[in-house]
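== Protein entry: sequence and backbone fold ==
=== Local backbone shapes as whole numbers ===
==== Amino acids and backbone structure tokens ====
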Amino acid sequence: MSKSNINKRRATDLKPKESSIILEFGNEEMSSKFLEIGCRPKSPIQLIRKGPGGKTMYFLVNGHAFALRTEEAVHIILKY
């Protein structure tokens, strides 16, 4: 995580209907996957809901809905 003067949190910390802005990605390998599906730094992100058991999270990013596993979403770093 680069910009140390900005408070950060992870996408997994969002509560349903809560929004934030994507700052960066915490994993080089996952960042290419996020970029392919349209998750880009400076994009707004909202947690729509969590799936059964909390293993899947449904996000709205730039008007597109995505389902990510919790172990994937933890690599999305947000502005706090």
